[in-house]
Amino acid sequence: MLGLDRKDTGLLAVVAILALFAPFILNPFPQGSELAQFNAGYPDLMQRFVIFGIFAIGFNLLFGLTGYLSFGHAAFLGVGSYAAVWMFKLLSMNVIPAILLSIAVAGLFSVVIGYISLRRSGIYFSILTLAFAQMSFNLAYSVLTPITNGETGLQLSLDDPRVLDGGGVATSLPLTNFFGIEMRATETLNLGPWAFQFNAGYYLCAILLLVTFYISIRIFRSPFGLMLRAVKSNQQRLSYTGLSTRPYTLAVFVISGMYAGLAGGLLASMDPLAGAERMQWTASGEVVIMTILGGAGTLIGPVLGAGVIKYFENIFSKINEGVLHGWFGALPDGLENAIVWVLARFTGEGWHLTLGLLFMAIIIFLPGGLVEGGRRSRALFRRRGRRGGAAEEDAAKQRAARPAE
Amino acid sequence: MSFRRQTRRGILKTGIAAGAGLALPTIFTARSASAFTNEPTGSSVTLGFNVPQSGPYADEGADELRAFELAVEHLNGEGDGGMMNTFSSKELTGEGILGKRVEYVTGDTQTKSDAARASARSMIEKDGAVMISGGSSSGVAVAVQGLCQEAGVIFMAGLTHSNDTTGKDRKANGFRHFFNAYQSGAALGPVLETLYGTDRKAYHLTADYTWGWTTQESMQAVTEDLGWETVNNVLTPLAATDFSSYITPILQSGADVLFLNHYGGNMVNSLTNAVQFGLKDAMAQTGKQFEIVVPLYSELMARGAGENIRGIPGSQNWDWKLENQLGERYRGTNVFTQSFGEKYGFPPSQAAHTCYVQTLLYADAVQRAGSFNPCAVVEALEDFEFDGLGNGPTLYRGADHQCLKDVVVTRGKENPDNEFDLVEIVEATPVEQVTYPPDHPMFAGGALGECNEGA
After folding, report:
1. Same domain? B339 vs B307
2. Is A320 or B83 the better-scoring residue by pLDDT?
3. pLDDT in tens, B161-219
4. Which of A110, B100, B218, B374 could be stapled to B45 by a disulfide with Cβ–Cβ 3.0 to 4.6 Å?
5. pLDDT at position A167, please?
6. Which of B52-56, B74-78, B212-216, B373-377 bottoms out in mean pLDDT, i.e. has the lowest?
7. What kind and span of H or E run contains B260?
8. DSSP-assigned letter for residue A30
């Protein structure tokens, strides 16, 4: 289907189903129960899952395929955000022009940075991109304050021109919309004690995630993708055969930058504010961690990694000492305090520590990231089930071999 | 003709389908049932306290959180009731708000607009908070205030001192009890004149965001009215921790007064650097003793800066010694200091005070309005006059949602008795002297808009 083979179609279908039913999947615990704080199915976080998923997919196109480790990808995300907010201020609250401009601006920006940075490879390339990103961050933070509003962040105001929306000073801040569908609009479905939230903005992001995921599969499977893999395995040998690798790497760098721009534009579309801290090196480091955590060079890995990190950042960080005391309240006082003290180092503000340990564990035991973990455990089950289920498997093969009806 | 045989699976399927079909009409009821965002329907109401737990303002954030916890305790009828006893409005009885028990969620703003908005959004969307409070950075306060306006919940600003919060960026759903940069300037002007005369040259180091900008603007306007000259204004990044490179050129510039438009950890670091470079004891090129001024002061910062703070003037929203030193006009101060001190073992900062007061004011407004509806709350708070919350008679001005009240001018003590008594009160500038028209040029360019109840 759509030029994909069976396996890839299956993967796309799985991602589509996950994205479509995320409001259910992420809200497994009833409202008001003790476990409800582990629910992640509220619009803000779901949007973040998907948007950072797009960001990581784009980063993975560069890092996973060519092995070029960019440490400055957040710059493109930030540029995209600024472009989108300016579009909301000047042109229209419709998200389409904002998203288009954010992709275009991030693309142009990445042509410039890529053209210079790709003259070097390996660690030198990483340092160059890092330097460019920090430069953009500092510019946005201070020198370019008239454009970026510095530390305060670029925001909408009542007297923005908004040419296409008919102008005139609004009485309250307008909301971002997609041809009239407000991004903030949320329908709540109450099923017994469960409350599932369906947010218009989330579904826009989810559709774009599927589109970008599809494009990423096509790039992975294309001759272009094969060239990029060749760059990763041995760039020198490729050069000696008379091929110039620069056009390929620059092209994928720009594509990757545009993915980041799209993510930035979406972030601004969901919540029209752009802050300079989106460009800081920690933000660039985050996407590297997401990709490696999920599995660099795999299709679905970056999306999983983005999900894990955002879940930790938003849910795990909320488990403060008060919550822990609630959990262990039944224990004797001294023991309770001791346990809470230890756990509080790893939750709440200490979530970075837990994430760090998890990251180390994955790098050491599962160098291929979460995807490798999944593959290994599946292999484990398959080997165990081989003896008993061999007949069934054969039957399944035969069924699969039958021509489609 | 034949009937299809009924299978168990078929019956189950039909049953489920029929059940789902019957349930369908009832599932979208939640939205139509609530009249505004996060209408509390159960026996409790959730407030969101969004404070910096990391970054340069983390100390202030921690103290704000303590005050919020205390306020919730008092609203729920636990503890000694604190300022509810002295508050001029007697609507609050210690039975929660409108009979609903008060619960709260907390979040970390990281002193970053982006993170603060994400945290506030999760409070509104996930935890169902009907009011967001907190802050400690004006950039964050402005960003979160905008978010609350869009989402249709009330924002009770915590510590935010920029003119823009109730000026250029004012919003109908946002309210500020804290004073602002203009009022600092108006209160400090006469004091600076008596201390340092009318012929001085000022050098500004300014935190590079909305608060720093407006504070610098206000101080420059006031000092130039006195006849002072402004030599230079240097913007420093909020995230900076070492200010030595900004300090070195000051003495050579010909200035003889340094304004540190810094707050929190920033101010502690820049003041320490300035003292290390000997600015405090230096003779300026003009032949006068070099002086340092910190427009916005706090006990927490004084504690951080230690003895470097000696003799340095500044302004505050409130101080825990007010009632003892200036009398009955500031009643409420002592009861609050006492209940805070009993719970935590030290006196509250002004950040804690303003957050505590904002929570009480919100609860009282809901009680008087008889509803959690944001628009009803806005109506109840606008032009509300009250007393007994530690600042003397206060007006919540309806035109810009700014509280008008006395401003405290303070100075670092020369010989502090203990580590909590580092600041002495110079005077309380009466409210008339710090009142300005809502359309004052420094506050122009904004509009409240209409209140938004969301949903």
Report:
1. no
2. B83
3. 999 999 988 999 999 999 999 999 999 999 999 999 999 999 999 998 889 999 999 99
4. B100
5. 62
6. B52-56
7. strand B257-261
8. -
> Range of B226's domain?
182-316
Which chain A residue has its CA at the smallest distance from B207's CA? Answer: A151
CB count in 10 Å sphere of residue A317: 21
pLDDT at B410 > cutoff 90 = yes
Same domain as B161, residue B69: yes
**B133 and B193 together in one domain:** no
CATH architecture of A6-300: Orthogonal Bundle (1.10)
- Total structural domains in chain B? 2
Q: What is the DSSP-derived secondary structure letter of residue B393?
A: S
Angle (nearest 5°) at CA B224 between B223 and B229: 100
Mean pLDDT of chain B: 88
Which chain A positions have a beta carbon within 8 Å of B54's beta carbon?
349
Residues 6+ apart with CB under 8 A from A397: none
In a domain, B421, yes or no: no
How close is the nearest chain A Cα to the Cα of B307, in Å?
31
State whether B118 and A44 contact (CB < 8 Å).
yes
Residue B450 covered by a domain: no
Q: Which chain A positions have a beta carbon within 8 Å of B112's beta carbon?
A: 275, 277
- The tens digit of pLDDT for each residue in A310-346 reads 998 888 877 877 778 888 888 888 888 888 888 888 8
For residue B199, give the CATH number of its domain.
3.40.50.2300
Is residue B17 situated within a structural domain?
no
Q: At what angle do helices A246-270 and A43-66 cross, to 10 degrees?
A: 180
Residues in chain B closer than 8 A to A141 (CB atoms): 208, 237
Q: Note whether A278 contacts B139, CB cutoff 8 Å.
A: no
**Residues B265 and B344 placed together within one structural domain of the fold:** no
Query: Which residue has tokens 């959730």?
Result: B46
Q: Amino acid identity, residue A276?
A: A
Contacts for B390 with CB less than 8 Å, ≥ 6 apart: B83, B318, B322, B323, B330, B331, B332, B333, B336, B353, B357
- Give Cβ neighbours of residue A315 (< 8 Å, ≥ 6 apart): A37, A38, A40, A45
Tell me chain B's radius of gyration from C-alpha atoms.
Answer: 25
